[in-house]
Amino acid sequence: MDEREKEKVQFRLMLESEKEIVKKLSESEKYKYFLGRMQFLKYTSGKENLLEADCSGSVCLALLLATGCSIRVTADSLYRKFFTVKNPEKDDIKAAFFITNYDRKLNGRLYREGECAHVAGLCGIDVVLNCVEPHSVLRSLSDMRPFYNAMDYSVVVRGLNREALQKASDEGNQLFGADYEFEQICNAINGER
Questions:
Q1: CA nearest 79: which of 102, 61, 99?
Q2: What pLDDT, on the 0 to 100 scale, is given for residue 180?
Q3: Start-to-end C-alpha separation, the chain
Q4: Within 13 Å of residue 43, how many CA atoms lie on the same side as its CB?
Q5: How many other CB atoms sit within 10 Å of the CB of residue 21?
């Protein structure tokens, strides 16, 4: 068995054990569970798997594991296309978005005023998975908000538009640069349906 085949088997075994743990949970509870499970992932830009991820990658991965819907987009696309519910209910899938109040350059990329530069999935009451260097950690959103506000970011919590997520996943046109491991998880989940 070659390395890729071994990885496929490992992903299937991991997903089977995770599936057993979360089988009686709602999608929202699964989303929170998987965000919590991602604490201490190594931060790596452009990644989204159970070993390393960036901020939007961790949210996209949690959505995949909780709902079976596969998208891989930026924090700004999550904000504008998928997390559009402005007054989410208590049990909705939610994320916190950090929107720049002026044009700024971060990590070699220019973010325009009003663009979402960071996202953190809500995994508890006032608790988010903050995926930044060197690794992701669970943090209090109340503690993060003043820090980001002082750096001229607006912090907004939004709920998931489940229909928009499902539509994008069905169309398969919202997967931009997903890494091999993410694709393997997608294949394993879709193979289970």
A1: 99
A2: 74
A3: 25
A4: 12
A5: 11
Quick one: tokens of 25?
């949970």
97 phi and psi, to 5 degrees? -120, 140
pLDDT at 176 (0 to 100) = 72
* Residues 132 and 42: beta-carbon distance below 8 Å: no
Instruction: Let me know: does 67 contact 82? Beta carbons within 8 Å.
Output: no
91, two tokens: 């049990």
> How long, in residues, is the chain?
193
Q: Which of 65, 56, 58 minimizes the C-alpha distance to 14?
A: 65
> What is the pTM (predicted TM-score) of this model?
0.90
Cα separation, 113 vs 93, whole angstroms: 26
| 3-state class (DSSP) for residue 134 | coil
DSSP state of 72: B
Strand partners, 175: 72
For the cut 80, the answer to whether the pLDDT of residue 192 exceeds it is no
Q: Give the SS3 label for residue 77.
A: helix
Burial degree of 173 (CB within 10 A; 0-12, 13-18, 19+) = exposed
Give the Cα separation of 57 and 188 in Å (integer): 18
- What is the bridge-based pairing of β-strands 42-43 and 52-53? parallel
